[in-house]
Amino acid sequence: MTDTQQQPLAQITNQRDKTTNGTVDAINPKSPLEFTWTFWYIKPDKRLSWEQSLINLIDVSFVEDFWATYNHLASPSRLSQNKSNSDYYFFKKGVRPMWEDKANANGGRWLLTCGNQDNKLDELWLETLLGMIGDCFSHDTDAEPLSRYITGCVVAIRTRGHKIALWLSEAHNGTIVREIGRRWRSIMNLPSNLRIQFDMHNESSSGSQRPMYEE
Ligand code: MGP
Q1: CA distance readout (Å), 194 to 111, 186, 188, 214
Q2: What pLDDT is stored for residue 45 in this prediction?
Q3: Which of 63, 142, 171, 175 could be cross-linked to 200 through a Cys-Cys bond (beta carbons 3.0 to 4.6 Å apart)?
Q4: CATH for 31-214, among 3.90.550.10, 3.40.50.300, 3.40.1080.10, 3.30.760.10?
């Protein structure tokens, strides 16, 4: 028997992965996501500017990597116990989670204000994430997949009321914006008494009071 034949299978697989520089194990292939996503975190630190406090955590391209990361991160409700003012951002790879990025510059956000109760927050956040990685915003009957207009989502932990937002690259096409809002509501199974509001980024950043749309 040669040296190679004596090696355990896993070791051989690892070696093959190394030699081909591949990330997919041919025996247990991982399930690729439609898009690669990046998890970001805002560390609450008054000494830092907003941009300095933005931390790029990790990219996820596979279902398994998504769950490994999700399970490793503190849940939003856990953060709310001792890390108020922190945020998670989950954006398509290559899009910086800020208004200034060219993918967001002409866009806006659907905003769900969740209040201070933590019990539903984790569930709404997870439903939003799964809707995004599972491409649930696109339907087979769509002329074009609506997921192309979604750049990312945010959960913001605030003592005055937690928020979840869905960021879109497009704010001017009302039909698309409203349809995405309706689908988001349905993905989260939002009760009818909870409303979501849409604002363009340049208006939400300038503190305008009136939402552009409401669903
Ligand atoms: P926020 O985290 O979106 O809302 O923005 P928050 O904390 O609920 O407060 P609100 O009352 O302003 O809604 C908080 C602050 O972070 C903003 O006023 C900006 O100073 C900064 N900030 C947030 N975002 C998303 C951006 C961004 O995209 N670009 C820049 N330059 N600053 C941002």
Answers
A1: 11, 12, 11, 11
A2: 86
A3: 171
A4: 3.30.760.10
Whose Cα sits closest to atom 32 in ligand 1? 50
What is the structure's pLDDT at 12?
A: 32
46, 48, 50, 209: residue to mutate for ligand 1 pocket, most atoms within 8 A of CB: 50
Residue nearest to atom 1 of ligand 1 (CA): 156
* Average pLDDT of adjacent 10-residue blocks, the chain of 215 residues: 37 39 66 96 90 96 97 93 89 97 96 86 96 93 93 95 96 95 96 94 65 88
The pLDDT value given to residue 176: 96
Q: What are phi and psi of 156, to 5 degrees?
A: -115, 125
